[in-house]
Amino acid sequence: ILIMRLLIFIYIFVSIIFTGCSDKNENSKKIINDDKKVEKKEIKKLSKQDIFLEVFIKDNKIYSKSSKTILLIFANKKDPYSKKLEEDITYNKELQELLKTSLNSYYININEEKRYKQFYNNQFMNVDMKTLMAIYSIKATPSIIFTNNQAKVILSIPGYMPVEQLISTIKFIKSKKYQGLKPNSKELLKALKQHYIQDNITLNKN
């Protein structure tokens, strides 16, 4: 009887030890898996940021050697509408493609102490952020500025524009429907509004 009790005791003791080890292994696996999930999220986050940055020209020269229209986006990282526009660009492939292939696109963070080379009178001027914002009359963020290949303004849009409307606006500029109309004129805005109607874009009445 004593021997049987001893064997039962040993069996229970060994079972407890193995159960503890098994639990530790499971916990270790869970921690490793959780760490991998965090890493994947970080990689995904970085890759999305890379996608956003790849759309824009890194050069600080605001100029186009080709006949491509220039797009300047003035943004403030602390502004929720600038962040919304950044999300639109990051997640909308059609918008990304238009920004990369149809325009020379620049993303200008007004919080950066960065200098730009602004093309003016057939030469480049070295300007700071304050001067650049004054040149394009930037009073709100985001501001979307379309210019010709020598950085002369075609159309200025202060404030956030919904993604479908922005895509339609780029297509309007790409089609050259603005040609023969004065920059930012009532006639140009009327032509743009007509383009929106044809493109089934619903405008906010406000």
Automatic annotation (TrEMBL):
It comes from the Bacteria. SUPFAM superfamilies: Thioredoxin-like (SSF52833). Pfam families: Thioredoxin_2. Residues 65-167 form the Thioredoxin-like fold domain. This is Thioredoxin-like fold domain-containing protein.
